[in-house]
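Example 4.3 (complexes with small molecules)
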Amino acid sequence: MSNSSQQMKAIILYDTRSAGGSTERFVDALGTSLAGTGAYVEKGKCKATADYSFVQDFDVVIMGAPVYYLLVSSELLGSLIQSNLKRYLRRKKVALFLTCGSPEPMAYMMYLPQLKIHLVRNKILAEKVFAPQQLSDEQAIDEFASTITQAYRKALKTRDSSLRWTDEAQEMLEQIPLFFRNRIKIAAEEYAEEMGYREITVDVIDEAKAELER
Ligand SMILES: Cc1cc2nc3c(=O)[nH]c(=O)nc-3n(C[C@H](O)[C@H](O)[C@H](O)COP(=O)(O)O)c2cc1C
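Answer. The structure with flavin mononucleotide bound is encoded below.
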């Protein structure tokens, strides 16, 4: 395992009703594959009543679960709805997976949005629906792990590049009273960097302002 300061610290938050079932085996294989790319990885089984403050210690949160009777498994959905997980996911880079038996288009249309609706402000590094036969397919798992790692590295790199302000965003900034202007400017730049945006638009300023007010 590498000790570089860029080492990605990832947590896999998952749920399943079957101890030792296909999802748990998949989570272990994904963890091993990520560790093989140099990442530090932990896993945790979701509980809707858990305290998720430990999520602060991780750079990337990988979330996933099986679909049972058309719904993403309830402790993961419950965590996003009832617990403080969403609060600690603020500005986190996330990756999503589902395990299910439905055809891919249906899963992307019906199941992934059940998670994504809670993550509209997050940078999603990767998302994948795994069919039953892919759950033990080393190549598919390695590909997913490497998509996450590469997207994470790319998001870090964009932090070094200079951010561009669109003319519209610049005009909007100039209309903000001087007292707040610098605060908003810094907040917008920090927010854009966190999210891996290269450009600050009016929407990015609005999002950054909303973050400040939360
Ligand atoms: C009771 C039950 C209900 C299921 N319902 C669905 C479903 O509605 N849609 C779907 O795509 N797959 C469904 N599946 C398939 C599972 O999502 C899939 O087999 C998954 O890999 C199971 O994970 P596990 O082994 O961790 O329980 C269902 C499986 C079970 C056992």
